[in-house]
Every structure is written in C-alpha cells, then in structure tokens.
Amino acid sequence: MPARLLSIPAVAAALDVDRRTVYRFIAAGDLPVVDLRTGPGRSRVRVPVAGLRRVHQPPRRRTAGSPPLTQTISAPSPLNKE
Asked: For residue range 62-74, what is the model confidence (pLDDT) as tens digits?
C-alpha cells in the first residue's frame, strides 16, 4: 500500500500550526518530504502521514522531583518606574 501524502496546508491543519511553521519543521529536518516535480525549476512537496508522528508527540509528563517543563521569567515593567 503506498504511503499517504499530505499537502502543506493539510499538515498545518493536522498539527494546528501555521503553514510557515510547517516549512520551518521541514527546513529543520523534523518533517520528511517527498518532492513531486511539476516542471523545470518547480516542485510540489508532500509530507508522508507517518512523518507527522515525529513532530506531533504527546506532552511529557512531569515526575516527582523533576524541573518544570517551562520556566517563567518576569522582567520589570518599563511602565512601572519607581
């Protein structure tokens, strides 16, 4: 059975991200692509459905004693001068 290929807008919808973010994932090597040439100097890329699993990982669970997954940094407000 051939691999199912998704367009960039379909990948963006599946991952709930902007189309530009999908291109960033591709440039970073996080998403595999299949290049379908449609003419000289022109290409049309598709992403295999199986490649979405690399990017769409469930969030990690914290265990007791582990540091938080995000860190909040507060900076003094320039509007609140004392």
From this structure: 555 655 555 445 4
Look up residue 80 and give its two tokens.
């609140």
**pTM (predicted TM-score):** 0.60
- Residue-wise pLDDT for 31-60, tens only, equals 999 888 777 777 788 999 988 887 765 555
Q: What is the pLDDT of residue 65?
A: 60
Neighbours of 17 (CB within 10 A): 15
Which has the closest alpha carbon to 51: 72, 22, 77? 22
Angle subtended at Cα 60 by Cα 48 and Cα 20, rounded to the nearest 5 degrees: 40
Could you give the CA distance from residue 1 to residue 59 in angstroms, rounded to a whole number?
Answer: 31
Q: Indicate the length of the chain as a whole number.
A: 82
Can you name the residues that pair with 35 across neighbouring β-strands? 45
User: What gap in Å lies between CA 60 and CA 27, rounded to an integer?
Assistant: 24
Task: Say how many C-beta atoms besides its own lie within 10 A of residue 81's C-beta.
Answer: 6
